[in-house]
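Hi everyone,

Forwarding the result from last night's run.
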Amino acid sequence: MDESVAVRRGAPADVEVIRALVEAAYTKWIPVIGRLPIPMRADYAQAVLENRFDLLLAGPELAGLIETKAEADHLLVVNVAVDPAFQGRGFGVRLMQRADAIAAEAGLARLRLYTNKKYVANLRLYGALGYRVEREEPYAGPGRTRDDDITVHMVKDLAADMAERRQA
């Protein structure tokens, strides 16, 4: 099947499809961490006004998204999600590369994200994309039910990543 893939900016009219995609992508994590993941608690009507959403479309369908927020000295990757029906096609990597481009365009040399320590596959992916663990701390948000609920803060320096690619 040859499908076209495109990325476009999200807008307030996309709130419901964003919410549905996030729910589909994160539901599998509820039994793993014992609570609703942070993205499932978000107010997307507000978030789409405050943050940047890049939507990845496979044909006419929303396959994934990345939500970013430019801070003073870095780009925060707030959320990256791929619909389970579209996982395994490299869309998550493509969206993370999009974050690199957004940071570079904004003149930001550093990206940050946070994730749950139990999202092992995500941690491996982020590590392979040049992110390193900056710190870990107990999750202190709503719904905490387990002592092993750990937030992992990760950082990526674009300049170091580019220098490493040149050496390879």
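The longest helix spans residues 91-105.

Cheers,
N.
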